[in-house]
Design a protein that fits this description.
It contains four helices and no strands. It has helices at 7-13, 24-34, 53-63, 81-95. The radius of gyration is 15 Å and the shape is elongated. The protein has two domains: 1-47, no CATH class; 52-97, no CATH class.
């Protein structure tokens, strides 16, 4: 999947560009270093998948080798632990971090 990032912000913060073996922990660590959220008009959020619709969430499912749908797309696959882990990670990005 594709990840776009602001190279100027990475340079400004002294953060190396993502490597090809970036992990979710690496991603979170980078987001925490980039974000500057104080409740003001100049807040800088590290990441958003809103506005990209289902595609924004699908990237995380593909990355975790999961899908919210069965292989034939006829049934729910929401009980798959990988799906739950993926949704929890995305929720934590918003609600915890």
């Amino acid at each position: 999947m594709v990840m776009y990032y602001n190279t100027a912000i990475f340079e400004e913060e002294g953060i190396d560009p993502p490597s090809t073996d970036w992990t979710w922990d690496d991603f979170l660590e980078t987001c925490l270093a980039v974000a500057n959220v104080t409740g003001g008009a100049d807040d800088r959020f590290a990441y958003s998948f809103w506005g990209s619709g289902v595609f924004g969430m699908a990237a995380w499912y593909f990355n975790s080798d999961a899908s919210p749908l069965s292989d034939d797309w006829m049934d729910s696959n929401l009980l798959d632990p990988k799906v739950a882990e993926t949704v929890q990670f995305m929720a934590d990005l918003i609600l915890e971090h």
